Amino acid sequence: EQLTQNVLKSYHETCQLRAEDLQRRRWDTFSREEICAYQKKSMEEMWQRCAGRITEAIQHVVEFAKRLHGFMELCQNDQIVLLKAGAMEVVLVHMCRAFNADNRTVFFEGKYASAELFRSLGRAEDLIGSIFDFAQSLCALQCSEPEVAFLSALVLVNASRPWLQEPVKVSRLRRRLELGFQLLLRRTRREGLLDRLPPQGRLRALCSQHVEQLQALRRRHPPALLDAFPPLYRELFA
Amino acid sequence: KHRILHKLLQNGNS
Question: Is B4's CB within 8 Å of A79's CB?
Answer without folding.
Answer: no
